[in-house]
Amino acid sequence: MNLLHRFQTFLKHHWLFLAACFGVTVLGALGFVGVTLAVRADFLRSLDFDLTVRIQDLTPVKLDEYLIWFGTIAKFQLIVPALILFLLIMQRWVMVVTSLGFLFVAHLLEIVGKEILFQPPPPFMFYRHPTEFVFPELHVFDVSSYPSGHSLRITFVTVTIFAVLWTSPRIPLLLKLAIGAALAGVAFLTMFSRVSLGEHWSSDVAGGFFLGLMCAALNVMFVLWKKTNARTHHAKTNSKTE
User: Fold this and answer.
1) Which of 16, 88, 156, 179 is deepest in the core (most CB within 10 A)?
2) % the chain with pLDDT above 90
3) What is the pTM of this model?
4) Structural domains in the chain (count)
């Protein structure tokens, strides 16, 4: 536990936290570019197929009705208002604006990616979305599935929420770790459900994850950078006054 306290103390220094965010941003960018290039070169088709078969074989069908809820949580009209409400409760006024801005950029990159890099989603034989009816449109998938928007949003939101909680001095360390573990579990199950339900390939989920990670880290880094600059400027002003 002493090690965890030291790590938390280490990250309380804004410039060190900025460096950590920068590292995560670079990791997300490299991961997104790498997966995108691999998908474009068609290197992952066989791996995607094998992973989908393996995951669906290991996931009981009776769990589908529960896994579908994680996809519902990650819908734009639910998860984005929830994030904004959380930030307002935590009184992170600037982050409300920056979160909407970086989410807009992330979805813009998603749309551009779907337009210039067409990857057909899994065929209908993999589709396990529970429903009593089979509509004709479910047999035809004419929209690119790369990257996964659900994976992008759940990653962005969970990382942003955890960063806000972690930098809050009012919350005990153990509670931060517990909430972080819960957020990680929700994010994992959401991305897992995309493949197990036959909605996306694993490469779609990986691309969405890295894109969401990059934009979330940029969001946190931008807000912290502005706050650090403001404090530095305030300190310099006070020293000159004295």
Assistant:
1) 156
2) 54
3) 0.84
4) 1
